[in-house]
Write a sequence for this structure.
């Protein structure tokens, strides 16, 4: 396995004064399912288009499998793309769409027929050869786009928010299917999405982008449990921010004085050594407990429920306490709005669930 | 409500009557057995049509008009296609000005355009004839062609072209395999309408033809003699039918694949 299959070396892309991608460097492993995650305008799509060859970088270089592809046009790169709107050619049928990219590969007729047949069976589209794009559902179009790209057996498959246009149920299905497909064929996937749940559930590694820069790059698990800064923590799931000051370091731990709550020993995932520096702590809604009675947890705050939203499998509570102005927490079906008299509740927090964040 | 609908209906009928009754007189009188355009009609005849067929000068003029029309429509559609693609696809400095520059011949009084071309052509020492007429028609047809093509190309999903590049086609292959087939209904509509505009055009031809008459020039010349009027009526009737057919065909083509038919034809532009 090649650990630096794709090498992105100091890539910048400026559009006028806008730095869409700002001096980004990282590597993608061979066979990896790699996601670029971020809000719209963060530069993730530009980065993907740079890999595809639709844009050329203002500076920096791109290496794929050891060879420099920075200046190659899209038709000379061993990459293929699944477009956000699928871009199925409307004037030719599914079979011709899938064959489209094989013309220049110098295959025999038999090979072309076999490849098309195999890839259509891979994406479960047998029997749709004669259909036109307008006669297909969104999910089927997505499969055609996938087949059309995979039939060329690219070294890297680039996917630009391919599931964005599908309804939720179909999207969940396709997520699983894409993941399975990728493991099966072993091609490196670079997947762009703004949907953190999608990125987390499918990827081997995720790069979170904002303002043209990579904020954090790690495994989904690491990303959720150990976000390195406020942006990542806020973007990956919901969280509560608490202001704090550091105190004495204690091995892997550090004492932190959280505003209005007192001093606690928490894991020093940022390796902070200075005393009395301002930090932000994060605590995830689902790690807290909401109850009608006081608990014996280290932190237990009395509060008043300001608002609730029922989410089916759980209920989300917006709580106000004396110590913290606004806390978001969730609870399973066991509790709902009616469980609390006059909105009176107790919020319990385990200091082990609090994590430190960089301000930037 | 009922009354309002009636008013609208009457208005609509009056409007169409105003538009088309004068035009209908041409075919009617072309079958009338008389030299004058006046009622009552004196009898049915196809003699004027036979007379029309026999005129060799007419054949010459028709051939001249077809030559001019074919060249003018092909050249203006080609120019307009490149321009329309640029306007629809890219944002560039001076876009509005260049758009305006192409559209101006559409707005300048034709006679001014004609005089301007005449003066320049003669001062360059060239002879009058079909060449300057064709050049004038190219200038005059390009804005029409561009309006038709921009309507077709605007809203075109340009990621289709990127997809083609991504799948290994170079720029020419992409144009040939993706863009051209999808623009084709618009291109044909533009060719047909440009041809008709050139075919019917009189003012530029009047100033620039010299001795090689185009069809409108021929008709104009014939109308000065009363005994030649009937066969011009017959010719006029034929041209009306031909033009109507071409224009309807062009509009049908222009809309092809943009409405309900898209599934049947498999030509689709908008998602």
């Amino acid at each position: 396995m090649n650990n630096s299959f794709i090498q992105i070396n100091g890539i910048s892309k400026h559009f006028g004064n806008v730095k869409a991608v700002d001096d980004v460097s990282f590597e993608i492993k061979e066979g990896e399912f790699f996601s670029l995650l971020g809000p719209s305008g963060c530069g993730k799509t530009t980065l993907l288009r740079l890999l595809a060859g639709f844009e050329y970088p203002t500076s920096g270089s791109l290496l794929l499998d050891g060879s420099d592809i920075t200046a190659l046009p899209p038709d000379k790169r061993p990459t293929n793309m699944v477009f956000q709107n699928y871009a199925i050619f409307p004037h030719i049928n599914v079979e011709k769409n899938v064959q489209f990219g094989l013309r220049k590969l110098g295959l025999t007729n038999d090979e072309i027929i076999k490849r098309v047949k195999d890839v259509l069976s891979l994406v479960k589209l047998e029997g749709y050869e004669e259909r036109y794009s307008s006669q297909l559902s969104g999910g089927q179009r997505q499969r055609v786009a996938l087949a059309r790209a995979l039939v060329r057996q690219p070294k890297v498959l680039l996917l630009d928010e391919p599931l964005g246009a599908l309804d939720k149920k179909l999207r969940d299905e396709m997520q699983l299917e894409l993941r399975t497909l990728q493991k099966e064929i072993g091609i490196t996937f670079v997947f762009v999405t703004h949907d953190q749940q999608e990125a987390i559930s499918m990827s081997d590694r995720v790069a979170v982008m904002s303002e043209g820069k990579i904020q954090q790059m790690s495994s989904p698990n690491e990303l959720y449990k150990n976000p390195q800064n406020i942006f990542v923590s806020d973007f990956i799931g919901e969280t509560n921010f608490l202001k704090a000051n550091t105190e004495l370091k204690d091995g892997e731990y550090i004492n932190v004085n959280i505003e209005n709550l007192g001093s606690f020993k928490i894991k020093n995932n940022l390796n902070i050594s200075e005393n009395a520096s301002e930090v932000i702590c994060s605590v995830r809604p689902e790690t807290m407990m909401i109850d009608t009675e006081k608990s014996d947890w280290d932190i237990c705050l009395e509060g008043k429920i300001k608002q609730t939203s029922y989410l089916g499998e759980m209920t989300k509570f917006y709580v106000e306490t004396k110590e913290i102005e606004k806390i978001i927490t969730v609870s399973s079906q066991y509790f709902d709005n009616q469980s609390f008299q006059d909105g009176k509740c107790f919020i319990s927090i385990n200091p082990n669930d609090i994590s430190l964040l960089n301000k930037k | 409500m009922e009354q309002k609908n009636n008013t609208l209906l009457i208005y609509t009928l009056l409007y169409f009557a105003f538009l088309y009754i004068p035009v209908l007189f041409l075919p009617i009188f072309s079958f009338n057995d008389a030299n004058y355009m006046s009622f009552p009609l004196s009898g049915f005849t196809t003699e004027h049509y036979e007379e029309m067929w026999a005129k060799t000068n007419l054949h010459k003029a028709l051939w001249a008009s077809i030559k001019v029309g074919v060249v003018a429509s092909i050249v203006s559609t080609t120019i307009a296609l490149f321009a329309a693609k640029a306007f629809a696809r890219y944002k560039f400095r001076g876009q509005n000005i260049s758009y305006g520059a192409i559209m101006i011949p559409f707005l300048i009084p034709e006679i001014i355009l004609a005089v301007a071309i005449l003066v320049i052509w003669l001062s360059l020492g060239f002879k009058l004839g079909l060449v300057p007429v064709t050049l004038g028609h190219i200038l005059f047809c390009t804005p029409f062609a561009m309006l038709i093509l921009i309507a077709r190309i605007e809203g075109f999903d340009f990621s289709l072209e990127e997809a083609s590049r991504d799948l290994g086609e170079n720029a020419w292959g992409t144009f040939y395999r993706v863009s051209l087939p999808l623009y084709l209904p618009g291109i044909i509509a533009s060719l047909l309408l440009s041809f008709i505009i050139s075919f019917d055009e009189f003012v530029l031809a009047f100033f620039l033809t010299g001795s090689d008459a185009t069809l409108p020039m021929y008709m104009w010349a014939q109308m000065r003699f009363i005994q030649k009027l009937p066969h011009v009526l017959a010719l006029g009737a034929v041209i009306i039918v031909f033009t109507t057919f071409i224009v309807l065909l062009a509009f049908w083509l222009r809309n092809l694949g943009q409405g309900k038919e898209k599934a049947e034809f498999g030509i689709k532009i908008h998602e």
